[in-house]
Amino acid sequence: MNDLHISAAVRYVGADDTTIDLFESQYPVPNGVSYNAYVILDEKAAVLDTVDRRAAAEWLDRVAEQLAGRKPDYLVLHHLEPDHAGSVGAFLEKYPEAVLVGNAKTFAMLPKYYRYDAARTITVKEGDTLALGSHVLTFVMAPMVHWPEVMVSYESSEKILFSADGFGTFGALSKGRPWIEEAARYYFNIVGKYGAQVQALLKKAAGLDIRTICPLHGPVLREDLGYYIGKYDQWSRYEPEEPDAVLVAYASIHGNTAQAAGKMVDILGAKGCPKVVPVDLCRADQAVAVENAFLCGKMVLLCPTYDGGLFPAMDHFLAHLRDKTYRSRKVCLIENGSWAPAAAKVMRSYLEAMKDITICGDVHTIQGAIKDCDTTAMEQLAEALLS
Ligand code: FEO
């Protein structure tokens, strides 16, 4: 049996994508991404989700190989985002007799992408079951994890949770990377806005005896499931993994603000900060900056004034944090401006609109290159942040 298969009856039929440039047209995925899909073979045969249309042909071949001449009775649609439902049309062309299984929101949305025979659908709701023989799927609604129509399903005979985007991670399976390597960047940037909805799903899942988690991206999780569930619980409660760690996020036009950021990193280290994470917002993957903002309990922002406001990279970063509902953190602000400094005012306005953000110490204004007076002010800011 292929290593990726879950059991004799539950087969992996997903596809790796190692040539995509940007996942969702915004996230670099140097190790690619997997679009997971599964087949359950019992008295009835069910296909669980499709794949991005980039991998449709490969996926259809894999499904046919596992079906070994059988026709699929059902296509279960846990999530309609095109990285998973992008091959529904190709599937229906090949298997027009198959019955589509989704919830009311699935079938409100599906016609926006595909034509299909509404008579060949089953609409399920919370707690409904689909019996395939000895395998039975029970459906659990998971709205906004991470689209409104998302549902997960629990297969009771083998105790498998098909968790949709939940517990996913970046990285093609063929790359063999550990789940944790990209799980936080994936979580905070894709699902992070919906912490309350993830909490609601975790509460439902707590009532299930789960032995295996089959997500739609990344490795199938079979052991130490408490570790993965614990990560999702902490992340979705917006608790920092490292409360005393400081993210130093900076944008710099000509290098002076970058120099100030470097000085701040040194000062924080000298004052005993256990971990300082510098991120150049103009050059780093913004998704890494967002991930680290959530993992660290504290943050220093440094930005020059530009066109009467923020330099664009900082503006983008703060807009991402606002959209991902960044909250409950301590932050220091440093602006740069050799004439009409205005960056701090805009940074403050972003932060004041967020929940439970404490701005520590006095906002400091650097005028051009850093001088002794700036170092003194940064020492005071570091003390305020670390206290
Ligand atoms: Fe992997 Fe929300 O799609």
For the structure shown, list the relevant keywords.
alpha/beta; Metallo-beta-lactamase, Chain A; Rossmann fold; 12 helices; binds MU-OXO-diiron
CATH first level of the largest domain: which class? Answer: Alpha Beta
Helix/strand class: alpha/beta
Within CATH, the superfamily of the largest domain carries the name: Ribonuclease Z/Hydroxyacylglutathione hydrolase-like
CATH topology of the largest domain: Metallo-beta-lactamase, Chain A
- Please give the oligomerization state of what you see: single chain
Bound molecules: MU-OXO-diiron
Largest sheet: 7 strands, mixed
Beta strand count: 22
Describe the 3D structure.
The structure is a single chain. With 387 residues, the chain is of the alpha/beta class. The chain has 2 domains: 2-236, Metallo-beta-lactamase, Chain A (4-Layer Sandwich); 242-386, Rossmann fold, CATH 3.40.50.360. 33% of the residues lie in helices and 25% in strands. It is built from 12 helices and 22 strands. Strands 16, 17, 18, 19, 20, 21 and 22 form a 7-stranded mixed β-sheet that branches. A 6-stranded mixed β-sheet has the order 1-6-7-8-9-10. A 5-stranded mixed β-sheet has the order 11-12-13-14-15, with no helix packed on it. A hairpin with a 4-residue loop joins β11 and β12 (136-141). α5 packs across α9 and α9 (286-295) crosses α10. The chain is elongated. It starts with 9 loop residues before the first strand and ends with a helix. 45% of the residues are buried. The chain binds MU-OXO-diiron. MU-OXO-diiron is lined by residues 79, 81, 83-84, 146-147, 165, 216-217.
